[in-house]
Amino acid sequence: MKILVCITKAPDTTTKISFADNNSTFNEAGVQWIINPYYEWYALVRALELKEAGIATDIHLISVGKADIEPVIRKALALGGDEAVRVDADSRDSYFVASQIAEYAKANHYDLLLTGKESIDYNNASMGAMLAELLDLSYITHVSKLDVANGVVTVNREIEGGEETDTCPMPLVLSCQKGMAEARIPNMRGIMAARTKPLKVVPASTVETLTEIVQYDMPPQKTGVKMIDAENMDELVRLLHEEAKVL
Length: 247
Known about the structure:
Structural class: alpha/beta
Strand order of the largest sheet: 11-10-9-12-8-1-6-7-13
CATH class: Alpha Beta
CATH topology: Rossmann fold
Largest sheet: 9 strands, mixed
Mean pLDDT: 89
Number of strands: 13
CATH superfamily: HUPs
Strand content: 25-35%
Oligomer: single chain
Distance between the termini: 46 Å
Number of domains: 1
Number of helices: 6
CATH architecture: 3-Layer(aba) Sandwich
Radius of gyration: 21 Å
């Protein structure tokens, strides 16, 4: 069984965010990039577990980005991916990214395609669904448990008020979330091996970009907290009625 794991970079959560060019571009100066956690901790690690169990044979990685994403891809290889491909393009458009991955997947015939449920920078959670549609495959989202047997995938996913169990034949696309696997840290052997593992760069296909970022805006600064004396319940009730806002 061949698995294709989608990999993307994201700013470290401690990064101080700023914008440039009249707030039209994200300022990448000094940013520490990491593998998007949902793709690393859950999609990639569960794929590695399936290989260790003798269920999967090949774990391939794919990412759409320029050369600056290669250190992130190498870290994913250090965790245990067998080989990787970088589509040489830079885009914030989910349809463009999904289209590039779909073109590669069509030519290489994978049984299972795994993504994270969303990226932690743009939080759009749309790429996986687009990828499945472009490949004409079934798609199950927000998967928290994954098992494979006899060519059939069994998954658990959270729904409102409970949990749902689904089965589906392969090939298909899954998006992964917390509960799928436990995070791993690459060891020295993996780091050294990653230096020589194949990382192929392919040109981007000609695909229309459907969205454009016009401007970024920072969220409003938090206002101060009003402290009310525990004995002054009337004032607390007044503030709740007149000033409190439901978000």
